[in-house]
């Protein structure tokens, strides 16, 4: 049966490599890399994410600036905060926790973040940079998936990859990353007519659907590497988008949920912040090392 891809352990290693790079940056600039996180309202899941982001940022030796705004914050106030963070020399990365309360215009807020501080990689300028092969910032979750895939498989060139889901946050950037690594990429989505047909030949499957147990083991190519991005809350706890038991019987390797992709997201956020800080200050960093 399939090998387990231990994202928790990989993320811990990545955080350690990031923390190792902080002292030299401090030495060169007299300050630590800084990440600003903006949380509007009291969504409990978002509050948990923001707390872990702050904690892991500090544990890596970086500065965490946390801005908690009330749920009834208006658009102008939020935009003014983004402007202030864009101008703040101590801030290298800015993250506005999504989803925003529905009275706010998410798109306008994301567009306001300076692309060079956009460590979430959600600004269209960064999406364009990814699509055209320019250096920028790549969304954390798909970049984390790519790291796990390369760690497991080495060179991905020529492999057949199927991405299930086409969101701007996961599916689309995942497909762009795999294309850049010379995979043959198929993007499938809610209107795809015959998903098993595409999965039959896939060496790599990345599932980002949001439906528990959606991908069945019998659809997979034996030996496939399966990355399960899904986080679904069910009566029995957290579960992914892949039907783990049937998939593990066929796949060569698979990420568990929890403990697979989940822990990678914040670790990559810290990585993007470290990279942003070095680029902004013109301090050399071998980005391939982190
Ligand atoms: P989304 O709702 O924005 O996108 C879901 C995608 O699935 C859509 O593109 C849709 O076309 C596709 N889809 C829906 N039904 C389908 C079907 N029957 N067949 C094929 N495709 C179908 O979600 P998202 O933001 O991309 O997130 C996807 C999942 O990943 C969610 O469970 C989310 O919680 C999880 N997620 C996890 C992390 C993490 O850190 N691990 C980060 C982001 C998202």
TrEMBL record:
Q: Name one Pfam family in it.
A: THF_DHG_CYH_C
Q: State if Amino-acid biosynthesis is listed as a keyword.
A: yes
Record EC number: 1.5.1.5, 3.5.4.9
Recorded metabolic or biological pathway in which this protein acts? One-carbon metabolism; tetrahydrofolate interconversion
This protein's record includes keyword Hydrolase? yes
An example Gene Ontology molecular-function term: methenyltetrahydrofolate cyclohydrolase activity
- Name the UniProt key words of this record, in alphabetical order: Amino-acid biosynthesis, Histidine biosynthesis, Hydrolase, Methionine biosynthesis, Multifunctional enzyme, NADP, One-carbon metabolism, Oxidoreductase, Purine biosynthesis
Looking up InterPro entries in the UniProt record yields:
Aminoacid_DH-like_N_sf (IPR046346), NAD(P)-bd_dom_sf (IPR036291), THF_DH/CycHdrlase (IPR000672), THF_DH/CycHdrlase_cat_dom (IPR020630), THF_DH/CycHdrlase_CS (IPR020867), THF_DH/CycHdrlase_NAD-bd_dom (IPR020631)
Record domain Tetrahydrofolate dehydrogenase/cyclohydrolase NAD(P)-binding: where: 139-280
- Where on this chain does NADP(+) bind? 165-167, 231
The UniProt function text for this chain reads:
Catalyzes the oxidation of 5,10-methylenetetrahydrofolate to 5,10-methenyltetrahydrofolate and then the hydrolysis of 5,10-methenyltetrahydrofolate to 10-formyltetrahydrofolate.
Family, according to the entry, reads as follows: Belongs to the tetrahydrofolate dehydrogenase/cyclohydrolase family.
Matching entries from NCBIfam families are given as: PRK10792.1, PRK14186.1, PRK14188.1
State the PANTHER family in the record: C-1-TETRAHYDROFOLATE SYNTHASE, CYTOPLASMIC, C-1-TETRAHYDROFOLATE SYNTHASE, CYTOPLASMIC-RELATED
Q: What is this protein called?
A: Bifunctional protein FolD
The organism that produces this protein has a lineage beginning with:
Bacteria, Pseudomonadati, Pseudomonadota, Alphaproteobacteria, Sphingomonadales
What gene does this protein come from?
folD
């Amino acid at each position: 049966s399939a090998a387990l891809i231990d994202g928790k352990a990989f993320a811990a290693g990545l955080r350690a490599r990031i923390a190792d790079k902080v002292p030299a940056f401090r030495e060169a600039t007299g300050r630590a890399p800084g990440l600003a996180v903006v949380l509007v309202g009291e969504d409990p899941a978002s509050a948990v994410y923001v707390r872990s982001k702050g904690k892991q940022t500090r544990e890596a030796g970086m500065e965490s600036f946390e801005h908690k705004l009330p749920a009834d914050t208006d658009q102008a106030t939020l935009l003014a905060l983004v402007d202030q963070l864009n101008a703040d020399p101590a801030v290298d990365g800015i993250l506005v926790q999504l989803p925003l309360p529905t009275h706010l215009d998410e798109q306008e807020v994301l567009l306001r973040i300076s692309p060079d501080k956009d460590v979430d990689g959600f600004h269209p300028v960064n999406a364009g940079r990814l699509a055209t092969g320019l250096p920028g910032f790549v969304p954390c979750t798909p970049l984390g998936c790519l790291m796990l895939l390369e760690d497991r498989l080495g060179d991905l060139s020529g492999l057949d990859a199927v991405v299930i889901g086409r969101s701007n946050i996961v599916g689309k950037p995942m497909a762009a990353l795999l294309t850049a690594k010379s995979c043959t990429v198929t993007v499938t989505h809610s209107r795809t007519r015959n998903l098993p047909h595409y999965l039959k030949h896939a060496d790599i499957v990345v599932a980002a659907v949001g439906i528990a147990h959606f991908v069945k083991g019998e659809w997979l190519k034996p030996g496939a590497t399966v990355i399960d991005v899904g986080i679904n809350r069910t009566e029995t706890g957290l579960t992914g988008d892949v039907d783990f038991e049937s998939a593990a019987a066929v796949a060569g390797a698979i990420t568990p949920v929890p403990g697979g992709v989940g822990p990678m997201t914040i670790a990559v956020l810290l990585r993007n912040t470290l990279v942003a800080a070095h680029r902004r200050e013109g301090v050399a960093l071998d980005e391939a090392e982190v």
